[in-house]
Design brief:
By secondary structure, the chain is of the alpha/beta class. The chain has helices at 11-22, 38-42, 51-56, 68-75, 80-84, 97-109, 139-150, 165-193, 198-202, 210-220, 230-247, 252-266, 277-280; strands spanning 4-7, 27-30, 46-47, 60-63, 88-91, 113-119, 132-137, 155-158. It has 13 helices and eight strands. It binds NADP nicotinamide-adenine-dinucleotide phosphate.
Length: 292
Protein backbone atom coordinates (compact mmCIF):
# COMPACT_ATOMS: atom_id res chain seq x y z
CA UNK A 1 0.00 0.00 0.00
CA UNK A 2 1.22 3.52 -0.79
CA UNK A 3 0.94 6.65 1.37
CA UNK A 4 -1.73 8.73 -0.33
CA UNK A 5 -4.13 8.69 -3.27
CA UNK A 6 -5.12 11.89 -5.03
CA UNK A 7 -8.49 11.67 -6.78
CA UNK A 8 -9.03 14.50 -9.29
CA UNK A 9 -6.19 15.92 -11.35
CA UNK A 10 -7.68 19.15 -12.67
CA UNK A 11 -5.77 22.41 -12.30
CA UNK A 12 -5.93 22.30 -8.51
CA UNK A 13 -5.73 18.52 -8.01
CA UNK A 14 -2.63 18.37 -10.22
CA UNK A 15 -0.95 21.09 -8.17
CA UNK A 16 -1.75 19.19 -4.96
CA UNK A 17 -0.52 15.88 -6.40
CA UNK A 18 2.67 17.51 -7.65
CA UNK A 19 3.47 19.00 -4.23
CA UNK A 20 2.75 15.66 -2.55
CA UNK A 21 4.93 13.80 -5.02
CA UNK A 22 7.69 16.37 -4.65
CA UNK A 23 7.60 15.89 -0.85
CA UNK A 24 8.40 12.19 -1.34
CA UNK A 25 5.09 10.51 -0.49
CA UNK A 26 4.31 7.27 -2.28
CA UNK A 27 1.50 8.50 -4.51
CA UNK A 28 -1.39 6.88 -6.33
CA UNK A 29 -3.48 9.01 -8.68
CA UNK A 30 -6.85 8.66 -10.36
CA UNK A 31 -8.62 11.04 -12.73
CA UNK A 32 -11.81 10.60 -14.73
CA UNK A 33 -9.93 11.51 -17.91
CA UNK A 34 -6.99 9.08 -17.64
CA UNK A 35 -4.57 11.18 -19.73
CA UNK A 36 -4.09 13.57 -16.80
CA UNK A 37 -2.51 10.73 -14.78
CA UNK A 38 0.35 10.24 -17.25
CA UNK A 39 2.75 12.99 -16.05
CA UNK A 40 2.50 11.67 -12.48
CA UNK A 41 2.93 8.05 -13.52
CA UNK A 42 5.94 9.08 -15.60
CA UNK A 43 7.43 10.50 -12.39
CA UNK A 44 6.85 7.32 -10.37
CA UNK A 45 3.24 7.51 -9.13
CA UNK A 46 0.85 4.58 -9.54
CA UNK A 47 -2.10 5.24 -11.82
CA UNK A 48 -5.22 3.51 -10.48
CA UNK A 49 -7.34 1.85 -13.18
CA UNK A 50 -10.63 2.70 -11.45
CA UNK A 51 -12.10 4.47 -8.43
CA UNK A 52 -12.27 1.44 -6.07
CA UNK A 53 -8.61 0.61 -6.79
CA UNK A 54 -7.69 4.26 -6.13
CA UNK A 55 -9.36 4.18 -2.71
CA UNK A 56 -7.90 0.76 -1.85
CA UNK A 57 -4.36 1.86 -2.71
CA UNK A 58 -3.68 4.19 0.28
CA UNK A 59 -4.68 4.84 3.90
CA UNK A 60 -5.29 8.53 3.07
CA UNK A 61 -7.37 9.63 0.06
CA UNK A 62 -7.34 13.27 -0.97
CA UNK A 63 -10.22 14.34 -3.24
CA UNK A 64 -10.22 17.52 -5.34
CA UNK A 65 -12.94 17.59 -7.99
CA UNK A 66 -15.50 20.19 -9.12
CA UNK A 67 -18.00 20.06 -6.27
CA UNK A 68 -19.82 17.78 -3.82
CA UNK A 69 -22.07 16.38 -6.53
CA UNK A 70 -18.92 14.95 -8.11
CA UNK A 71 -17.50 13.95 -4.70
CA UNK A 72 -20.64 12.06 -3.76
CA UNK A 73 -20.80 10.39 -7.18
CA UNK A 74 -17.31 9.01 -6.49
CA UNK A 75 -18.00 7.93 -2.91
CA UNK A 76 -21.57 6.71 -2.93
CA UNK A 77 -21.22 3.73 -5.23
CA UNK A 78 -21.69 0.00 -4.71
CA UNK A 79 -18.00 -0.71 -4.09
CA UNK A 80 -16.30 2.33 -2.48
CA UNK A 81 -18.19 2.31 0.85
CA UNK A 82 -16.87 -1.18 1.64
CA UNK A 83 -13.28 0.01 1.11
CA UNK A 84 -13.49 3.14 3.27
CA UNK A 85 -13.44 1.63 6.78
CA UNK A 86 -10.28 2.68 8.64
CA UNK A 87 -9.17 5.10 5.92
CA UNK A 88 -8.94 8.87 6.06
CA UNK A 89 -10.68 10.99 3.43
CA UNK A 90 -9.40 14.55 2.98
CA UNK A 91 -11.97 16.35 0.84
CA UNK A 92 -10.70 19.62 -0.68
CA UNK A 93 -13.39 20.36 -3.30
CA UNK A 94 -15.32 23.60 -2.86
CA UNK A 95 -18.79 23.69 -1.31
CA UNK A 96 -21.00 24.83 1.55
CA UNK A 97 -20.90 23.93 5.27
CA UNK A 98 -24.09 21.85 4.88
CA UNK A 99 -22.53 19.83 2.05
CA UNK A 100 -19.45 19.23 4.23
CA UNK A 101 -21.65 18.10 7.12
CA UNK A 102 -23.63 15.72 4.91
CA UNK A 103 -20.56 14.11 3.38
CA UNK A 104 -18.85 13.88 6.78
CA UNK A 105 -21.96 12.22 8.24
CA UNK A 106 -22.06 9.75 5.37
CA UNK A 107 -18.34 8.92 5.75
CA UNK A 108 -18.72 8.39 9.51
CA UNK A 109 -21.40 5.81 8.70
CA UNK A 110 -18.77 3.92 6.67
CA UNK A 111 -16.23 4.11 9.56
CA UNK A 112 -14.00 6.43 7.57
CA UNK A 113 -12.22 9.36 9.19
CA UNK A 114 -13.19 12.58 7.37
CA UNK A 115 -11.50 15.96 7.08
CA UNK A 116 -13.03 18.75 5.01
CA UNK A 117 -10.81 21.45 3.58
CA UNK A 118 -11.10 24.54 1.44
CA UNK A 119 -8.32 26.07 -0.64
CA UNK A 120 -8.03 29.85 -0.42
CA UNK A 121 -5.39 30.32 -3.13
CA UNK A 122 -4.70 29.43 -6.75
CA UNK A 123 -2.93 26.29 -8.00
CA UNK A 124 0.27 28.26 -8.58
CA UNK A 125 0.51 28.93 -4.81
CA UNK A 126 0.31 25.25 -3.81
CA UNK A 127 3.67 24.00 -2.55
CA UNK A 128 4.83 27.58 -1.91
CA UNK A 129 4.72 29.90 1.10
CA UNK A 130 1.61 31.54 -0.40
CA UNK A 131 -0.58 28.44 -0.07
CA UNK A 132 -3.57 28.92 2.22
CA UNK A 133 -5.82 26.01 3.15
CA UNK A 134 -8.46 25.75 5.88
CA UNK A 135 -9.39 22.31 7.22
CA UNK A 136 -11.96 21.15 9.77
CA UNK A 137 -13.43 17.87 10.96
CA UNK A 138 -12.35 14.87 13.01
CA UNK A 139 -9.17 15.63 14.96
CA UNK A 140 -7.94 12.11 14.28
CA UNK A 141 -8.27 12.73 10.53
CA UNK A 142 -6.28 15.93 10.90
CA UNK A 143 -3.52 14.23 12.89
CA UNK A 144 -3.33 11.37 10.39
CA UNK A 145 -3.03 13.73 7.44
CA UNK A 146 -0.99 16.53 9.01
CA UNK A 147 2.31 15.59 7.33
CA UNK A 148 0.56 15.32 4.01
CA UNK A 149 -1.15 18.69 4.44
CA UNK A 150 2.15 20.28 5.47
CA UNK A 151 3.60 19.21 2.12
CA UNK A 152 1.07 21.50 0.39
CA UNK A 153 3.05 24.50 1.64
CA UNK A 154 2.22 27.84 3.23
CA UNK A 155 -0.50 27.95 5.82
CA UNK A 156 -2.70 24.95 6.53
CA UNK A 157 -4.97 25.87 9.42
CA UNK A 158 -7.02 23.34 11.41
CA UNK A 159 -10.24 25.03 12.56
CA UNK A 160 -11.46 22.27 14.88
CA UNK A 161 -14.00 19.47 14.83
CA UNK A 162 -16.94 21.45 13.39
CA UNK A 163 -16.65 20.08 9.88
CA UNK A 164 -18.49 23.04 8.31
CA UNK A 165 -15.98 25.58 9.63
CA UNK A 166 -13.54 25.42 6.69
CA UNK A 167 -16.35 26.07 4.18
CA UNK A 168 -17.70 28.93 6.28
CA UNK A 169 -14.29 30.63 6.41
CA UNK A 170 -13.83 30.04 2.67
CA UNK A 171 -17.19 31.67 1.90
CA UNK A 172 -16.40 34.49 4.34
CA UNK A 173 -13.09 35.15 2.61
CA UNK A 174 -14.75 35.02 -0.82
CA UNK A 175 -17.39 37.49 0.39
CA UNK A 176 -14.68 40.07 1.07
CA UNK A 177 -13.55 39.63 -2.55
CA UNK A 178 -17.01 40.58 -3.84
CA UNK A 179 -16.96 43.65 -1.58
CA UNK A 180 -13.62 44.58 -3.10
CA UNK A 181 -14.85 44.03 -6.68
CA UNK A 182 -17.90 46.23 -6.17
CA UNK A 183 -15.77 48.89 -4.46
CA UNK A 184 -13.15 48.99 -7.21
CA UNK A 185 -15.78 49.27 -9.93
CA UNK A 186 -17.59 52.09 -8.19
CA UNK A 187 -14.22 53.75 -7.50
CA UNK A 188 -13.45 53.54 -11.23
CA UNK A 189 -16.73 55.27 -12.01
CA UNK A 190 -16.00 57.98 -9.43
CA UNK A 191 -12.56 58.61 -10.95
CA UNK A 192 -14.09 58.67 -14.39
CA UNK A 193 -16.76 61.17 -13.30
CA UNK A 194 -14.00 63.79 -12.89
CA UNK A 195 -11.70 62.45 -15.65
CA UNK A 196 -9.14 61.25 -13.09
CA UNK A 197 -6.98 58.47 -14.54
CA UNK A 198 -7.26 55.13 -12.82
CA UNK A 199 -3.47 55.10 -12.60
CA UNK A 200 -3.86 57.77 -9.87
CA UNK A 201 -6.16 55.41 -7.99
CA UNK A 202 -3.74 52.48 -8.42
CA UNK A 203 -1.03 54.27 -6.46
CA UNK A 204 -3.19 54.47 -3.32
CA UNK A 205 -2.55 50.84 -2.41
CA UNK A 206 1.22 50.37 -2.05
CA UNK A 207 0.87 47.38 0.33
CA UNK A 208 -2.09 45.67 -1.33
CA UNK A 209 -1.34 43.76 -4.56
CA UNK A 210 -4.96 42.79 -5.26
CA UNK A 211 -6.79 46.11 -5.55
CA UNK A 212 -4.32 47.56 -8.11
CA UNK A 213 -4.37 44.22 -9.98
CA UNK A 214 -8.14 44.46 -10.53
CA UNK A 215 -8.17 48.22 -11.09
CA UNK A 216 -5.49 47.78 -13.74
CA UNK A 217 -7.71 45.31 -15.61
CA UNK A 218 -10.24 48.14 -15.98
CA UNK A 219 -7.52 50.69 -16.74
CA UNK A 220 -6.01 48.51 -19.50
CA UNK A 221 -9.36 47.07 -20.63
CA UNK A 222 -7.67 43.67 -20.42
CA UNK A 223 -10.93 41.90 -19.62
CA UNK A 224 -9.72 38.74 -21.36
CA UNK A 225 -6.94 38.23 -18.75
CA UNK A 226 -7.93 36.00 -15.85
CA UNK A 227 -6.96 33.16 -13.52
CA UNK A 228 -10.62 32.41 -12.92
CA UNK A 229 -13.59 33.56 -14.95
CA UNK A 230 -16.54 35.77 -14.05
CA UNK A 231 -18.70 32.62 -14.33
CA UNK A 232 -16.57 30.83 -11.69
CA UNK A 233 -17.01 33.81 -9.35
CA UNK A 234 -20.78 33.73 -10.06
CA UNK A 235 -20.87 30.04 -9.09
CA UNK A 236 -19.06 30.78 -5.82
CA UNK A 237 -21.52 33.59 -5.13
CA UNK A 238 -24.37 31.09 -5.39
CA UNK A 239 -22.74 29.06 -2.59
CA UNK A 240 -22.64 32.19 -0.43
CA UNK A 241 -26.35 32.78 -1.12
CA UNK A 242 -27.05 29.11 -0.36
CA UNK A 243 -25.27 29.34 2.98
CA UNK A 244 -27.44 32.38 3.78
CA UNK A 245 -30.51 30.21 3.18
CA UNK A 246 -29.12 27.13 4.99
CA UNK A 247 -27.97 29.14 8.02
CA UNK A 248 -30.85 31.65 7.98
CA UNK A 249 -28.57 34.69 7.81
CA UNK A 250 -29.14 37.95 5.92
CA UNK A 251 -28.47 37.58 2.16
CA UNK A 252 -29.05 41.17 1.00
CA UNK A 253 -25.40 41.73 0.11
CA UNK A 254 -24.83 38.53 -1.93
CA UNK A 255 -28.30 38.89 -3.53
CA UNK A 256 -27.46 42.43 -4.62
CA UNK A 257 -24.09 41.37 -6.06
CA UNK A 258 -25.68 38.32 -7.74
CA UNK A 259 -28.04 40.64 -9.65
CA UNK A 260 -25.05 42.48 -11.13
CA UNK A 261 -23.30 39.20 -12.00
CA UNK A 262 -26.46 38.05 -13.77
CA UNK A 263 -26.48 41.21 -15.90
CA UNK A 264 -22.84 40.57 -16.87
CA UNK A 265 -23.46 36.90 -17.71
CA UNK A 266 -26.57 37.81 -19.71
CA UNK A 267 -24.42 40.34 -21.60
CA UNK A 268 -22.02 37.50 -22.54
CA UNK A 269 -19.11 38.27 -20.19
CA UNK A 270 -19.10 34.94 -18.31
CA UNK A 271 -15.80 33.79 -19.76
CA UNK A 272 -14.00 37.08 -19.10
CA UNK A 273 -12.27 38.61 -16.08
CA UNK A 274 -14.57 39.33 -13.16
CA UNK A 275 -13.82 43.04 -13.73
CA UNK A 276 -16.07 42.81 -16.80
CA UNK A 277 -18.75 43.67 -14.26
CA UNK A 278 -17.54 47.20 -14.91
CA UNK A 279 -18.95 47.02 -18.40
CA UNK A 280 -22.49 46.70 -17.04
CA UNK A 281 -21.94 49.36 -14.37
CA UNK A 282 -20.41 52.17 -16.43
CA UNK A 283 -21.78 55.65 -15.95
CA UNK A 284 -22.89 55.68 -19.56
CA UNK A 285 -22.29 53.78 -22.77
CA UNK A 286 -19.32 55.87 -23.84
CA UNK A 287 -16.16 53.89 -24.58
CA UNK A 288 -13.91 53.51 -21.54
CA UNK A 289 -11.05 56.00 -21.81
CA UNK A 290 -7.56 54.74 -21.20
CA UNK A 291 -5.79 57.19 -18.94
CA UNK A 292 -2.38 58.48 -19.94
P1 LIG B 1 -10.75 21.77 -13.01
O1 LIG B 1 -9.42 22.07 -13.54
O2 LIG B 1 -11.94 22.11 -13.81
O3 LIG B 1 -10.79 20.19 -12.68
C1 LIG B 1 -11.94 19.58 -12.22
C2 LIG B 1 -11.62 18.17 -11.80
O4 LIG B 1 -12.81 17.51 -11.34
C3 LIG B 1 -11.08 17.30 -12.96
O5 LIG B 1 -10.14 16.40 -12.45
C4 LIG B 1 -12.36 16.60 -13.41
O6 LIG B 1 -12.10 15.40 -14.13
C5 LIG B 1 -12.97 16.30 -12.08
N1 LIG B 1 -14.39 15.98 -12.13
C6 LIG B 1 -15.42 16.82 -12.37
N2 LIG B 1 -16.58 16.15 -12.31
C7 LIG B 1 -16.27 14.87 -12.02
C8 LIG B 1 -17.05 13.70 -11.82
N3 LIG B 1 -18.39 13.71 -11.90
N4 LIG B 1 -16.39 12.54 -11.53
C9 LIG B 1 -15.05 12.52 -11.43
N5 LIG B 1 -14.26 13.59 -11.62
C10 LIG B 1 -14.88 14.76 -11.90
O7 LIG B 1 -11.01 22.46 -11.58
P2 LIG B 1 -9.91 22.76 -10.46
O8 LIG B 1 -9.42 24.14 -10.65
O9 LIG B 1 -8.96 21.61 -10.37
O10 LIG B 1 -10.88 22.79 -9.19
C11 LIG B 1 -11.08 21.64 -8.37
C12 LIG B 1 -11.65 22.12 -7.04
O11 LIG B 1 -10.71 23.02 -6.44
C13 LIG B 1 -12.97 22.88 -7.19
O12 LIG B 1 -13.84 22.56 -6.17
C14 LIG B 1 -12.51 24.33 -7.09
O13 LIG B 1 -13.54 25.19 -6.61
C15 LIG B 1 -11.37 24.22 -6.08
N6 LIG B 1 -10.47 25.37 -6.14
C16 LIG B 1 -9.89 25.72 -7.32
C17 LIG B 1 -9.08 26.87 -7.36
C18 LIG B 1 -8.43 27.32 -8.65
O14 LIG B 1 -7.94 28.47 -8.71
N7 LIG B 1 -8.36 26.48 -9.70
C19 LIG B 1 -8.87 27.62 -6.20
C20 LIG B 1 -9.45 27.21 -5.00
C21 LIG B 1 -10.26 26.09 -4.99
P3 LIG B 1 -11.77 15.48 -15.73
O15 LIG B 1 -10.33 15.88 -15.81
O16 LIG B 1 -12.05 14.13 -16.21
O17 LIG B 1 -12.70 16.53 -16.29
Amino acid sequence: MGDVTVVGLGLMGSALARAIQYAGFELTVWNRSPAKMQPFVADGASGAPDVPSAFAASPVILICVDNYVAVNALLQTDTVPGILAGRTVVQLSTGTPLEAQETSHWAAGKNASYLDGKILCGPDSIGTDNAKIMVSGAEMAYETSQNLLDSLGGEVRYLGENVGAASAVDLAWLTTCYGRFMGIIHAANLCRSESVGLDEFLTLFPDDPDTPYYAKIIHDRSFDTYTSTLQVWADALRRIQQQGIDANINTEFPDFVAGIFKKAIDAGYGQENVMSLYKVLQLDNAPIQKSK
